[in-house]
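Morning run. Coffee first, then this:
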Amino acid sequence: MNLIKKNYKTILVVVLVFFLLIIWASWQLAKDPSISIHNFEDCKNHYPIISMHPARCWTPEGQLHIKYSFNDPRAVIDFEDDSFGLVEDGSLLIEGEITGSWFFEASFLAELLDGHGQRFAWALANTSEDWMTSDLIPFQIVFKIPEDYQFPNAILVLVRDNPSGLEEHDDALAWPIEFKYLIDSE
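And here it is:
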């Protein structure tokens, strides 16, 4: 009986070591230095996509790459406007147009993410127009930027309102933002 317990423990240790070696080897292969990741497309070709809206991909080194919505016809935001990204008195105003199907009761969620994909601010995008249309309608968002967030950029995420809760209706659009902090010169 002692021999069976001894063999059982030996087999258990060997199996455990084997699995640890497999995990270590997989991790080493994932850190292939010949792979050059510069954007979301590069990342998704080598690493898994986290199925969150918007689509996100992380490298083993912890670099976050997000699928941006630069040419998506469902939303129009004037990134060239001089006031875009302007943070004044801790507030950031975003204005644009998006298809009415993104709204429910004239609003939808908007988020700001830091470079690690963590949300640091959120607000509701609102419209005063008839939102029950497939046309583009104007929206406005006012974010309150935390005082301790003084980084030069973030990621704007517009999250489609989904009152049904059905996963197939989830959607989000994302764009990078460069902040321009207005310093009060009193």
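The chain has a mean pLDDT of 85. Good start to the day.
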